[in-house]
Design a protein that fits this description.
Structural class: alpha/beta
CATH architecture of the largest domain: 3-Layer(aba) Sandwich
Number of domains: 2
Number of strands: 14
Distance between the termini: 35 Å
Strand content: 15-25%
Strand order of the largest sheet: 1-3-2-4-7-5-6-8-14-13-10
CATH superfamily of the largest domain: Zn peptidases
Number of helices: 7
CATH class of the largest domain: Alpha Beta
Helix content: 10-25%
Length: 331
Amino acid sequence: MKESQNSRSPGATRGTRALPVHRFMALEPGPRLIVTGAVHGNEIAGTEAIRRVLAEFERDEIEIVRGAVTLVPVCNPLAYRRGTRMGDRNLNRRLQPAAEPAVYEDRIANVLCPLLAEHDVLLDLHSFRTPGQPFVMRGPADNDGPLEPFRHAEAEARLAAHLGARRVVDGWMDVYAAGVAARRRRALTPGAVFEDPAYGVGTTEYIRSTGGYGVTLECGQHDDPKAPAFAWRAIRNALALLGLVDEPVQPPAGPLECLALVEVHDRFAEDDRFERPWKSFDPVAAGERIALRADGSELCAPVDGYVVFPDAGAQPGHEWFYFARPSDRPL
């Protein structure tokens, strides 16, 4: 059930001092799945879907027969109560335990990170601001590299394919790290954000660092009435796919489009402007102008591809948009 507006009004503090966690453990061994919602407080499709599943557990309509599932409907209670993306900072950036927590999200991380580390698989439910179709973000290919070593790419791809989205995106950490390096080279850019690549670590990156795997499922636009049902179906199919319940697994939604993020561009100045009001995953042809810098230089598509996560309100020195092309990692 959706919370009333009053319960999520700015400045609310009641209900922000604990992280509600619901766990169901079977008597037979199996995978340990954690499902999270409202990592960003204004993204409540996952919250509503998780609460729907909890109600089904209460009515004995779902039975865990092996393994365990943990449901966290609201990961950021402060931001959720305010109806904002974050409380003091973005919980899904630089997600790591804090020896000396300075802000609210640091204290949440000190509870959430150990909880993630107890599990094998993560399904993190989100939504997005502009209109568009649901998509899922997966991690890297199996590798021993220093940035994000990984060993579960096949299992992660199988999970991504069965969540109902027809678009799968990879390449996040590599592109984020390249963006950080480029930002450091522009040391004189006013307002530049000088974080390190660890700032790109969120829930899925954290569980991969502890030996598990996970995906971020973007369930639709924030206010799309279909988004909670989409998230609910994804949870139910994940339970079936992992064998936690004895229910049939629904097949993938259809042909899957696999994309890879390849570049990130920061905004340099207030007068930098987009060629037109882009939406995420708008296609662009090679050479097509995406944006015009204040100094007159053009940002054009290097190849046929897509504009991803455009932010017309980005501050100078911050991420402005990403560019994606077809991935060489089909599912």
